[in-house]
């Protein structure tokens, strides 16, 4: 990708150097534009050294100018596949929201037809101010994306929202724009379950499993990158990915109700969660003491989320399930496909501790017509992209694209 990184004057400007380095090392061309205030926080030399590209600015001393500086902004605006403003200050947000063009960065922002992404960072009071929020809402209405700031202790000493998002999260948001889209998934609503469920016995004890949720999170990213609108119903403690609407859940029952509330408006469902099959029959509000309870625990079945949603599906909705089996995995998976009314099952062979928490994995897709060629072994992010690709092409071939 050809990325323009606009760097206005905020204390988080030093983190933009890290972002520029990360993107350049990943093989992208990055040209930085420093505003006058930005150049007080970080130097053009830092940025041009990290990116091996010139650094631009309104002040000729700040960067390299071409023969005709008056059209520089048009050239840069055309060159960019994406313009990212990091850290986005209240000032540049206000300018762009109102169409002002008083320096190189603001003119490029107005002239470009490339997607624009904002990563705001500012004092909590400024961030919460209705003027800033209204300006951002306006930018969103123009189709711009925003990577919201994190909560934390800010440079001004205050604690709250306004801290620049993690550099890795901003990079992910930038790179999403360059990812190839799949016509069968663009604009489609995909609901994904992921992670373990936790079935509580009392306030301190819980029944759970070894799933981390990593695979479902990577699938959420891959569907998002392919152009889908993703809703992720997530158990466990892993951080939610950027650009995915995430609902945190704890138990199988929580997961079912979060899914039921969203299923009617979805185009597809991916059941990647390791849902507990049983839960304790009762929950004790106070910690159960030794000897207070019989030594055996009574368990009751949890609802099968995929089967429940499958029974309520309307024409055109598709469902992918997962299976983790330690023996005879293809036969078990085919039975699951039938019993739960799924379009495909992706089979993990968990023999030898593979799948849970492992870095690389292989999935074998099973369709009604039988097993397909295995996908992998691949690291989970690449595996997720390969699965989404495979499924996107299946959808195209089935002609379910409306
Ligand atoms: O029946 P089994 O648990 O092996 O099926 C695995 C598939 O079913 C996975 O896709 C999993 O997310 C889903 N599942 C579910 N609700 C359950 C149990 C499993 O949606 N209660």
Give the SSE layout:
Layout: E1 2-7, H1 13-25, E2 29-34, H2 38-41, H3 44-51, E3 55-57, H4 72-79, E4 82-88, H5 90-97, H6 104-111, E5 116-120, H7 124-128, H8 130-141, E6 145-146, E7 150-153, E8 159-163, H9 167-176, E9 189-194, E10 199-200, E11 206-207, H10 214-225, E12 229-234, E13 245-248, H11 252-263, E14 268-271, E15 278-280, E16 299-301, H12 305-311, E17 318-325, H13 329-340, E18 344-349, E19 360-367, E20 370-371, E21 375-379, H14 380-398
Parallel strand pairs: 1-2, 1-4, 2-3, 4-5, 5-6, 9-12, 9-14, 12-13, 14-17, 17-18
Antiparallel strand pairs: 7-8, 10-11, 15-16, 18-19, 19-20, 19-21
Helix pairs in contact: 1-3, 1-9, 4-6, 5-8, 10-14
The structure holds cytidine-5'-monophosphate.
Cytidine-5'-monophosphate (C5P) binds next to helix 12 and strand 17.
Q: For this structure, what is the CATH class of the largest domain?
A: Alpha Beta
Taking the sheet with the most strands, its summary is: 9 strands, mixed
Oligomer: single chain
Q: What average pLDDT do the residues reach?
A: 92
N- to C-terminal distance: 30 Å
The CATH architecture of the largest domain comes to 3-Layer(aba) Sandwich
Low-confidence stretches: 62-67
DSSP summary: helix tally? 14
CATH homologous superfamily identity of the largest domain: CoaB-like
What does this structure look like?
The protein has 402 residues and is of the alpha/beta class. The protein folds into two domains: 177 residues, Flavin prenyltransferase-like (Rossmann fold), CATH 3.40.50; 210 residues, 3-Layer(aba) Sandwich (Rossmann fold). It is built from 14 helices and 21 strands. Strand 10 and strand 11 form a beta hairpin. Helix 1 packs across helix 9, helix 5 packs across helix 8 and helix 10 crosses helix 14. It binds cytidine-5'-monophosphate.
